[in-house]
Amino acid sequence: MITSNHLESLVLEIIHQGGLVEVAHCWTNDIERCTVQVLSQALEKKNHIWIDYANEGSALTNLKHLLFKGDDINNRPQALQSYMGKRIMPWARDDLLVDLSDIAHKEQWSKHLPKIVNDSIQYEGRYIAVPLNRQRVNWMWINDSTFKKNNINHPTTWKEFFIIADKLKSRGCIPLSTCDDAWQNLILFETLVLGIGGAQFHHDVLVEPNKQTIQSDTMEKVFEHLKAIKSFIIRTDSWIESAAQVIEGQAAMYIMGDWAKGAFKASGINYGENGYMAIPTPQTQGIFLNSTDVFVFPKVKEKHLSGQKALAQMIMEEEVQENFNLSKGSIPARLNVASRNFDEVSHLSMKSVGTDIVVPSFTFEQTCDEYIRKPTEEFIDELFNNDFDESHATKHLSVLLTKRID
Question: Which residue segments constitute the domains of the chain, with CATH numbers given?
Answer without folding.
Answer: 12-135+291-343 (3.40.190.10), 136-289+361-401 (3.40.190.10)
